[in-house]
C-alpha cells in the first residue's frame, strides 16, 4: 500500500517513510526500482552524464567525525594542486569528452575566495562551454555570490543529516545543521544548480533520520542529490562501525528518483567501493550520473575520505574507459554533455 501511495503521489509522510524503510520487501524494492527507471528515462532517456572529478586539496579545517581527511588526522599526507595542475586535469578531461568539472576539496583556508574565483575564471576562460561544480563546503553568502559571478554553475554541499540530534553525533559542536541548511538555501537563491545528500548507514542513523532527510530534500527541491553507503575510515572514531547497506542505498536511490523525478542523481564511487557492480546497480535503481576521477594519480590515494576507495591507481583515461564499458553493459550510454538538471527545463 505504501509503495503504491509513493508511486501515485510522489511523497509520503514522515511516519509512512519510517514504516516503508522498516518493512520493505524485495518485491517493494523492485516495484520502486521499475518506477524510478521509468521516471529517469522520461527525463534523461538512456543517457548517463559524466562529471570529471578534480580533488584539488586534502587540507581541511573541519573535523567531521566520519572523514579520513579531517584536520586533526596527523597520518594524512597533505597536498594542494597548483593552478597549472588543475588546468592540466581539465585539459585531459576535455580531451576525453568531459564537459563538467567538479572541483572538490576539504575546507582549506589557503584557497581563499579570491583564489577560487581565479581558478573558476581560468577554467571558464579556456573551456567556455563547460560547467563547473564546486564542492568546497560552507562559505559566506558573499563568497558564494563571487563564485557564481566568476562563472561557477553548480555547488554540491551534502547536508549529511537533516535530523538535528544525528547531525550533532557526526560533527563537532562548531558545525551546525542550521548553518548547513542556510548555505543550501543561499546557493539556490544565487542560481546555482544545488546539490545536497547524505550517507546511508552512518553511525547512529535511524529510519527516522532517513525520513527526515527525505522530507528535507523534498522541501529544498535541489537540482541534484548525492547519496552513498557509509564506509568507515581507519583513522576516525568510527573505524569499527559497520558499513552502510547496499540494498538500502539502492532502495533510497529509487525513492529519491520518485520524490524528485528531475534531479541529477549520481551512482557514487562509494557504491562501487562497496560492491564491484555497485555503480551499475545504482544506475539500474534510478541514478543517471557517474563521476570518474581526473585527479593526478600521484595524489589520489591521499584523498581518502573512507577506506579502500576504488580507482586510486587508474589514469583518467582508464577510469573513463572502464566506466563507459560498464555503462554500455547495462544498456545505457555515457554522453559528452554538460548534463544540466532537468529541473532547469521547467
Which properties best describe this structure?
single chain; 346 residues; alpha/beta; TIM Barrel; 3-stranded parallel beta sheet; 44% helix; 12% strand; globular; BATS_dom; S-adenosyl-L-methionine; Iron-only hydrogenase maturation protein HydE
Kindly describe this structure.
There is one protein chain. The chain has one domain (12-17, 27-340): Aldolase class I (TIM Barrel, Alpha-Beta Barrel). The strands form two sheets. A six-stranded parallel sheet has the order 2-3-4-5-6-7. A three-stranded parallel sheet has the order 8-1-9. It is α/β, with parallel strands linked by helices and 346 residues long. Helices cover 44% and strands 12% of the residues. S-adenosyl-L-methionine binds at residues 160, 180. Its cofactor is [2Fe-2S] cluster; [4Fe-4S] cluster. Residues 46-262 form the Radical SAM core domain.
Brief overview:
This protein is α/β, with parallel strands linked by helices and 346 residues long.
Q: Strand order, main sheet: write it out.
A: 2-3-4-5-6-7
Q: Tell me the radius of gyration.
A: 19 Å
User: What is the name of the CATH topology?
Assistant: TIM Barrel
Shape: globular
- The pLDDT mean sits at 97
The largest pleated sheet is described as: 6 strands, parallel
User: DSSP helix count?
Assistant: 14
The CATH top-level class label: Alpha Beta
Looking at the overall shape, the CATH architecture is Alpha-Beta Barrel
- Count structural domains: 1
H/E topology pattern: HHHEEHEHEHEHHEHEHHHEHHE
Amino acid at each position: 500500500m505504501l509503495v503504491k501511495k509513493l508511486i501515485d503521489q510522489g511523497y509520503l509522510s514522515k511516519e509512512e517513510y519510517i514504516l516503508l524503510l522498516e518493512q520493505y520487501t524485495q518485491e517493494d524494492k523492485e516495484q520502486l526500482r521499475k518506477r524510478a527507471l521509468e521516471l529517469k528515462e522520461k527525463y534523461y532517456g538512456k543517457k548517463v552524464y559524466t562529471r570529471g572529478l578534480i580533488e584539488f586539496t586534502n587540507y581541511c579545517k573541519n573535523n567531521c567525525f566520519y572523514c579520513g581527511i579531517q584536520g586533526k588526522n596527523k597520518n594524512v599526507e597533505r597536498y594542494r594542486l597548483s593552478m597549472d595542475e588543475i588546468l592540466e586535469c581539465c585539459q585531459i578531461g576535455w580531451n576525453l569528452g568531459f564537459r563538467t568539472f567538479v572541483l572538490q576539496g576539504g575546507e582549506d583556508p589557503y584557497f581563499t575566495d579570491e583564489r577560487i574565483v581565479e581558478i573558476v575564471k581560468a577554467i571558464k576562460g579556456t573551456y567556455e562551454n563547460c560547467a563547473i561544480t564546486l564542492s568546497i563546503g560552507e562559505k559566506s553568502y558573499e563568497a558564494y555570490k563571487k563564485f557564481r559571478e566568476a562563472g561557477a554553475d553548480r555547488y554540491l554541499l551534502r547536508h549529511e543529516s537533516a535530523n538535528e540530534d544525528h547531525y550533532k553525533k557526526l560533527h563537532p559542536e562548531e558545525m551546525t545543521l542550521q548553518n548547513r541548511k542556510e548555505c543550501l538555501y543561499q546557493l539556490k537563491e544565487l542560481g546555482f544548480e544545488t546539490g545536497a545528500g547524505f550517507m546511508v548507514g552512518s553511525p547512529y542513523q535511524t529510519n527516522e533520520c532517513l525520513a527526515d532527510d527525505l522530507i528535507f530534500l523534498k522541501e529544498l527541491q535541489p537540482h541534484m542529490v548525492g547519496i552513498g553507503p557509509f564506509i568507515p575510515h581507519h583513522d576516525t572514531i568510527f573505524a569499527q562501525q559497520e558499513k552502510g547497506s547496499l540494498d538500502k542505498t539502492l532502495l533510497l536511490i529509487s525513492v529519491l528518483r520518485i520524490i524528485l523525478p528531475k534531479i541529477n542523481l549520481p551512482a557514487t564511487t562509494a557504491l562501487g567501493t562497496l560492491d564491484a557492480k555497485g555503480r551499475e546497480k545504482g544506475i539500474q535503481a534510478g541514478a543517471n550520473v557517474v563521476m570518474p576521477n581526473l585527479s593526478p594519480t600521484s595524489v589520489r590515494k591521499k584523498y581518502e575520505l573512507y577506506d579502500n576507495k576504488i580507482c586510486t591507481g587508474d589514469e583518467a583515461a582508464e577510469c573513463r574507459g572502464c566506466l563507459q564499458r560498464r555503462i554500455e553493459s547495462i544498456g545505457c550510454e555515457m554522453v559528452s554533455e554538460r548534463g544540466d538538471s532537468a529541473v532547469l527545463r521547467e
